[in-house]
Amino acid sequence: MFKSLVLLFFVPIIFAACKQQIDLDNLYGKWKYIRVEHNNEPTDTTQAGELASEKPYIEFTRDNKLQIVWGGRAISSGKFSIDGYNIRYKETLSDGTIREFPFWVSKIDSHQIIFNTKGADGTKVTAIKE
Length: 130
Description:
This protein is of the alpha+beta class. It is 21% helix and 47% strand. The chain has a single domain (20-129), classed as Lipocalin.
């Protein structure tokens, strides 16, 4: 009886503690930004009008490339890998140097993604799949 209770209690905890992996089939594609919240601004979000006019998006390709487009031009590009619910991004800067940082994905399904970057200029982005 004791063993059954222990298993009943601890097995769900162990499974909950195991980090799930992002489903790549859900990730691949073009994601249109619908909300951008800035960590360091009191207004908290980029205005809806700016998002409508600038048409920002992030795109993940099957060859592990990532591109962020804002106002019709690529503002960031590089390679990505998956680490649980983190997207590890290696951004290639214009001078050829590489900057690495994670995107923490708090939600992803076949229609919506919500991810965060941390730090003083961190953001929380909500995007929908096109």
